Amino acid sequence: MQGFILHTQKVKDEDLIVYILSPKMLVKTYRFYGLRHSSILNGYKIDFALEENPSFLPRLKDVLHLNFSWIMQREKMFIWQEFIRLLYQHLKDTEILEKFYFLLLEECVKRFEKQNPKRVIIDAYLKILEFEGRLHQDFICFSCDEKIQNHITLIRAFLPSHNHCALGYNFEEKKLKDFYDNKNCGIFNDEEIQNLYNLIKEGL
């Protein structure tokens, strides 16, 4: 079985509760004697096995790291782990999951090799919003329910508003439409990318 480590929680000594995103579910498992085995870090992709325990969580065993080519690049790893933390907070109360989330992380890992990591995360987040039915493409202000034109202010979860209705970041309507249609943030300049990334950091 393969999965991405979304979160670890120390229990006693070096034992851990480990949350792993697999293709079908968010696995909650127990790992004994953390210091005696290979390190377990958020964001790592692993191959693993589970030993069922009828009275407690399944035991994590036979862990094998599946390395990324960029895993030693500090900035990319920082951005990756930041996104993983946000994804865990978003999914932590769910057990059964669509394969979409696992495949999205696999796509991100590949794109991180050659692309700007913040741009990769922004494209990924847009796909999450669309998949979950939370992408507002009609540009109706969430505050006053009136149509927005030309310049659109986005707040957390890319909710659209007029600039006088909410504090957020302003974007051209044409650019946002292109972004939403193509699922690619290449149309935005570096400042706009940072603004979009700042919104993602507020929570998925």
From TrEMBL:
Q: What is this protein called?
A: Recombination protein RecO
InterPro entries this protein is in?
Answer: DNA_rep/recomb_RecO_N
Q: Which residues form the DNA replication/recombination mediator RecO N-terminal domain?
A: 1-71
Q: Which Pfam families match?
A: RecO_N_2
Organism name = Campylobacter aviculae
